[in-house]
Amino acid sequence: MAVGDSFDADILPPGHRRALADACDLLIDSWFDDLGPVSEGAWPVADSALGTALPRRHALAYTPRFARRFFVCLVTVAWKLAQPG
Q: Of 53, 21, 51, 48, which Cα lies nearest the Cα of 33?
C-alpha cells in the first residue's frame, strides 16, 4: 500500500500519489534528522527543517518537545494517507 492509494483514481491520479509519497518521505527524513540536534540543544527548533516550515512569528514557542510532538503528527498523517478506505 502506498500513500494515497485509498483515494479514487479520479481524485488522486498515480502521479499525484507518487508526488505525495515522495513529499512525505522527504519531510519525514529531514525532520527526523533534525530531532536529535534539536533535542540536545545544538540548535533551536526555529532553525531546523521543521521550524522553517512553520510561521516565524511563533518561533519562540517551538520547543524540542513541540518538535517531537509535531513530528509524530506528521508521521501519523502520512500513515493515515496510506491506509485503505
A: 48
